[in-house]
Automatic annotation (TrEMBL):
SMART domains: cNMP
One cellular component (GO) term of this entry: cytosol
Gene3D superfamilies in the cross-refs: Jelly Rolls, Winged helix-like DNA-binding domain superfamily/Winged helix DNA-binding domain
GO molecular function per UniProt: DNA-binding transcription factor activity
InterPro entries referenced in this protein's UniProt entry, alphabetically: cNMP-bd_dom, cNMP-bd_dom_sf, Env_Response_Regulators, RmlC-like_jellyroll, WH-like_DNA-bd_sf, WH_DNA-bd_sf
Name of the molecule in the record: Transcriptional regulator
Every Cyclic nucleotide-binding domain range: 12-132
Length: 228
């Protein structure tokens, strides 16, 4: 991967200097995982920072024997593992591939080393971490909102962050309804009914063959989510 592609693909790297980009790419390790594979186990948090080159993953927490809850859905251009790198505290979460996924990893010691050398990268990382905190605050504020509003907000966020613009609208991965329900903090039955209703209204198109969801009427979804 060229440094220009690396910088454009990952917002975290958009302000890093060329020397930083070249060095990070030279030490990055490539990984590929199939659907359903754990790409990061809970005992591995803190060892490296991971970048999603392609595909979709979910961060989940184990809540009981054979049971788990999805905490976040991440797609192309995002990263994970930064909190564990910085605070070194143990985690009770892991990361699972929702689709075939390609990752780049950079060892903890190497990444911390470059943070001290490149203040622009350091500042950019702080900006993105603050953005995640704000997103978490918005989710807390929306807990009392109607389920349809909350689900629309989740779909819009996924479309804005990871959607691929097509003739049919923004395309996102056909995320399992259980995971959509978890991250939206509503029931699976509610999620299924709302998604079917949105599909019937023509606001979204669910393509099970190609494992895609097209956000056809993005403006209406934004209105429903209260983002307009």
């Amino acid at each position: 991967m060229h440094t220009e592609v690396f910088s454009e693909l990952f917002p975290l790297m958009s302000t890093a200097n060329p020397q930083t980009l070249e060095w990070l790419l030279s030490i990055a390790v490539e990984h590929e995982y199939p659907i359903g594979r754990a790409v990061l186990m809970e005992d591995a948090w803190g060892n490296a920072l991971y970048f999603v080159v392609s595909g979709w993953v979910k961060v989940r927490r184990t809540v009981g024997e054979g049971s788990s809850v999805a905490l976040a859905i991440l797609g192309r251009g995002d990263f994970f593992g930064e909190m564990a790198i910085l605070d070194e505290s143990p985690r009770s979460t892991d990361v699972i591939a929702l689709s075939p996924v390609k990752l780049l990893s950079i060892a903890r010691e190497r990444f911390i080393q470059i943070l001290f050398k490149d203040p622009q990268l350091h500042h950019r990382m702080l900006q993105l971490m603050v953005r995640r905190l704000r997103h978490a605050n918005v989710r807390l504020q929306m807990r009392s909102s109607p389920p349809a509003v909350k689900l629309a907000h989740t779909l819009v966020s996924l479309g804005e962050n990871y959607g691929n613009q097509t003739a049919q609208g923004k395309e996102i991965f056909h995320i399992p309804f259980k995971d959509l329900a978890d991250v939206t903090e509503i029931g699976v039955e509610e999620t299924t009914k709302i998604m079917e209703k949105l599909h019937e209204k023509g606001w979204i198109k669910i393509d099970t063959v190609n494992q895609a969801i097209f956000l056809v009427n993005f403006r209406q979804l934004m209105n429903l989510a209260g983002k307009v």
